[in-house]
Amino acid sequence: MSNNASTSSPSELLYDDPSISGPDMAFNNGQVDGYTEEFDSSLPNLTSNTDPDWDITQWTAPGYFDPTNPDTNDTADSDPLLNGDPIAKWSAVSGNVSSGLAVYKSSQYGYTYALTQAGGSNTDVFLQTKEQNAGVANTFDHQLTFSANERITNVEPNGDNTTWFCYNAFTFAFNLSGKYSVPAASYFAQDVMADNRGQETADSGNGTSLSTGVFNVSNNDTYQDTSGAWHIDAIDAVDSLPLEDDTSFHQVTINLNAMLDSLISALSLKYPQYATYYQDLSDWTLTGSYIGPEGVSSGSTDPSYSATMEVNDIKITSGDSADQSYSAANQKIVQVSDGQASTIKVYNESSVIHLPSDGSSDIILSSYSGSGVKTITVDAERTDDTINLNGYNAIIDLSNINGYLTITPSSGYENITLNGTGAVNISGSFNGSITDNRTDKGDFVQSGGTANSSTGTDGNSTSSTSSSSNTSSTPTVTDITIQRDVTQYLSPTTDSSTILSLDGGLNLDGGKNVTMVGSYKYFNLFGLTGDTQIASALSGTGTIAEASGTPGITLSSSYASLNVNDSNISVFSYGGELTHTGTGNTTAYGDMGQMYIYGGTDNNIGVSLAGVGALYDATGNIGVSLEDSASNLTLDGPSYDYITAGDGSVTFNNGASGNITAAQTHSTGLYVNANGGQVDYQATSDTNATITIGGGQANLTYDQGYTASVLDMSSEAVETIKGFDPANGEIVLTHLGSEGIGGLSISYENGDALISSAGQAARLEITGIGSSRVEAFSSLGGQDFSTTYGSTSAILALAK
Fold first, then answer.
1. Where is this region: Disordered (predicted)?
2. Does residue 222 lie within any of the structural domains?
């Protein structure tokens, strides 16, 4: 499957949107500890929420912002589009170099970040990612996509004496896990959005250097061949922002997979011996993102070119399916809309959207608070607007409209109320309810579907309003049957309710003593109390939140996806997806496509995992079998779990422990990253396994198949290996001390070898070698292990 950002598939946020979470985030202080950026110990105190996913970073700055001391009375930077004055502003100035950050808050965009730079020595101010959301895949075998609203403002050329540009940048890491015996690498991939040296500079790929890890995407496919010669091919890959005082935002969408494909194509030409490895997207990870401007004075003391990059509605998403593969074809990487971003977001159901009167709007209703927003009020003014309902119910005021308003449903079951006056066109298949309260209706045309309609008097209705079996009423029920492809919206008030579905849909808000049986294409269940009895099958998407009892759900297909919050749950799966957050325990059996479990102290899990899975602070009786190379399991937090695998990968973090029993390798082999508690591994089958140890205790038994152990000697890990023979495996030590291979200490006791490295904490014991002796080699067969593993390394052998 080739990469395609427009492919519709479920996705999750890798980082929370800072337009929602707000500006109370870490600020760097310009210091580094080794290679680690340091941050101020204090955060801003502008909201009641802190954002661990993002930070503010400056480099070579004229001064570093004090997060606790913003200007909260700035009126000079007022912007009516962003609700007037910023809520906070920071600035730093030294000569002709200046940096600034202003934060605005508005009902339409949430928090907007205005990042300003003038002059400097590659001086920048960035909104930068800091911590990824747990349990969300960041490997490029998933579709990774960046999107945001962006614009340029406050442009002051000052004679164009200095350089100014802004970009969306990302760090792509290759082979961090040591999956392949090739050098690991990291690339700073830049998409320059605007440049005062001209748009041809922004689009040229200027600055691409594969050897130093910098890569610019551009409309020039720039690459270096094996002889060192550079080549440039013209392609249509990226759009840019206009470098002007923009009055509206542009929606920027970046297909990160296509961006990486462009880099891989260049790397494959430059290093053809590694091309096969580079083209394995599962071994590439997205490790960071950077948004903002940069300035260069080049020694000039003249006033610097200055401008602001504004950004909001930032989404970095990861597709749920590990179905992406490398494509050598030229692809569209960066798309920028011509006008204001088309997604209109609101906070709550009391919000009102005012559509502008100076041009047509084509909008998609959306929400900062997800499913909590049930009704949105839209004021349409004097234009031929299009409103895409996107699953939301809407109250639409047409009092000021001049022309047609077109309303397009998404699910087909949204409900709309029309107020005021004006003409309206209902486009597409529509099966929700229409309440028409207009006093002077004009035309009312429905071009597809049927609807429950309640119309007032005094109007010219040409709509087909025959009643369908769907209803959006809120009946008081005791027993109800939902027919196939019909959706019910219920809020039961009786003492008990029984609901049977024959492949229908259900939105259930509240209810006491609910019994729910049958098969459902989708459901949303909230706030169920009393004696809840659920034994149902789900073929599509489902949500359960705050339900009493232990609902029992069968995920009847690989398309079934269930999200559970603050509830116990029992699931049997035929290839579906399960996510459980909040309180409550999980019981799960069968075949899982994907599984994410957060918490629970009495979980009972026995599943076969085909895709990505993660268990965070989840304890109990847990067993997981990895099906194939696409299986990727992360265990985080104190637990001891049982894993059976011959392919795929397992990662242990933060005290997680487990027992791994080998199964036969059918594909690429098994990869284990042990970074926490205790890992016990038995090579009892024909398995090719690579086990990288960066912490905790590892007890490995070499036997059948081939086992490769990679021990980080700079960690505090303790490893014991039994049954080692060069015929059935290898042992590699990385991050040796400053004395390198000469600093290795090898001693023997009762037929066991004890190995350590001077100045490093890790320890290795190889048991049962008898009179054999351990030898260490920094290179073997033409392979330099320090180059392969990116640190001073050695391989161990037995001399008999």
1. 1-80, 437-478
2. yes
Report the distance separating Cα 592 and Cα 632, nearest Å: 12
Percent with pLDDT over 90 in the chain? 46
pLDDT tens by residue, 320-351:
999 999 998 767 788 887 533 334 544 445 45
Q: Please answer whether residues 225 and 269 qualify as being in contact, where contact means their C-beta atoms are separated by less than 8 angstroms.
A: yes
Does 327 share its domain with 369? no
Quick check: 713 pLDDT over 80? yes
Residue carrying the six token digits 């899990």: 605
Owning domain of residue 483: 473-584
Is the pTM higher than 0.90? no
The Cα–Cα gap between 317 and 6 comes to 13
Task: Summarize pLDDT for 302-318 with one digit per residue, the tens.
Answer: 888 999 999 999 999 99
Residue 265: strand, helix, or coil: helix
Rounded Cα distance between 565 and 547, Å, is 9
DSSP 139-203: BTTS-EEEEEEEEEEEEE-GGG-SEEEEEEEEEEEESTT--SSS--EEEEEEEEEEETT-HHHHT
pLDDT digits (tens, 9 = 90+) for 543-598: 999 999 989 998 988 889 999 999 999 999 989 999 999 999 999 998 999 999 99
Using alpha carbons only, give the angle 596, 599, 605 rounded to the nearest 5 degrees.
60
How far is CA 39 from its chain centroid?
A: 24
> Domain of 33: which CATH number?
2.60.120
Assess whether 398 and 290 both reside in one domain.
no
Please state, in angstroms and rounded to a whole number, the distance separating the CA atoms of residues 239 and 565: 40
Q: In the chain, what is the greatest distance between 2 CA atoms, to the nearest angstrom?
A: 102
What is the b/e burial string over 297-312, where b = at least 16 CB atoms within 10 angstroms of the residue's CB? beeeeebbbbbbbbbb
Q: What is the mean pLDDT of the chain?
A: 82
Q: Which amino acid is at 325?
A: S
Q: Shortest CA distance to 396 belongs to which of 370, 373, 377, 372?
A: 377
Give the dihedral sign, CA 14/15/16/18.
negative
Residue at a domain's end among 336, 358, 387: 336
- Which helix or strand (DSSP H or E) is residue 258 part of? helix 256-270
| Locus of tokens 């990679």 | 710
Tokens of 340: 């204001």
